[in-house]
Task: structure prediction
Amino acid sequence: MPLPSRKEGESKENFLSRCVSDEKTMQEFKDKDQRLAVCMSKASEGLDTLSSTAFTYDVINDGYTEAINEDNFYVPSEEEYEDWGEETEEWDISVAKPGLWENIRRKKQREGDNYKPAKTVKEGRPTQEQLKRAQNQEYQGRKVKLGKPFLTPNGPKKRSVYVKNEKGNVVKVNFGDPNMKIKKSDPARRKSFRSRHNCSNPGPRWKARYWS
Result:
């Protein structure tokens, strides 16, 4: 199954986000780490060795931004959120991005007496896995806090945060190496970290480096 192709003028970071969240890619590579590695390799095509290495290093050490879909959307518990002093707001995915049940309800309402549920997946019938995910999201609730990082014990990185990008769309930023700790009490380590991440100019909030 072929991977998505990088569009003309598309940045490697945006392609990586699109590739990782692509439905066909997720079907082919169900393991998140494997899917990320494959998409990084595809995003690095055409780059020289130094640029490719630098890009891979940044993704592994800082993280990456991905578009939200029903597979990667996660509702953190209050205990998983961390207060970093950032400006936050509440965002309801059921309003901004209607889910499976809402789409079915709207279709019933739109078609009225003519509504007929799809009998096969090709006709649009949800798979059992999709139904299960939708039920879980209904149970969890679909409101999350934008701009407030939360711990992600199951990966793909140590933390994630939902933020709005330059187009006003909510994206998920994954950042932080789950196997490393920032030793803030060590002046040399702190100075090295701030220099490596250019903390005096962290860039936009929808990029992993801002949060790393």
